[in-house]
Amino acid sequence: MSAPISRSGLQNEVINFYRKCCRAIRKKPIESRYRFQQFVRSQFRQYDISPRDHNAIEYMLRRGQRQLEAYESDSVKDVNL
Predict the structure, then answer these.
(1) For residue 36, with 0-12 CB atoms within 10 Å meaning exposed, 13-18 middle and 19 or more buried, which class applies?
(2) pTM, to two decimals
(3) Do 56 and 49 contact (CB within 8 A), yes or no?
(4) pLDDT by residue (tens digit) across 36-78?
(5) Which of 30, 54, 65, 79 is deepest in the core (most CB within 10 A)?
């Protein structure tokens, strides 16, 4: 059995934020969930940020939180890629 993975606090924040995004997708209409999932994936992969660039990661987390709040609204039914 291997030892558990040790992650930094910032790594845990990013992982938890991704999970939060995935949970928010489940609240969207079934016919648009796939597009939301593709959108979230593209947003996470869009930037090539060094794991050591903590300022950029923290900035992107704050920006993502604001974006998620907007997309979590019940009035948002779909997203265009």
Answers:
(1) buried
(2) 0.85
(3) yes
(4) 999 999 999 998 899 899 999 999 999 999 999 999 988 888 8
(5) 79
Element (H, E) at 45: helix 30-45
**Domain span at 16:** 9-71
For residue 3, give Cα distances in angstroms to 6, 37, 64, 77: 9, 31, 32, 43
pLDDT one-digit tens code per residue, 24-41 = 999 999 999 999 999 999
In a domain? residue 67: yes
In angstroms, the CA 36 to CA 32 distance is 6
Q: 37 to each of 1, 8, 48, how far by Cα in Å?
A: 33, 26, 20
Number of domains in the chain: 1
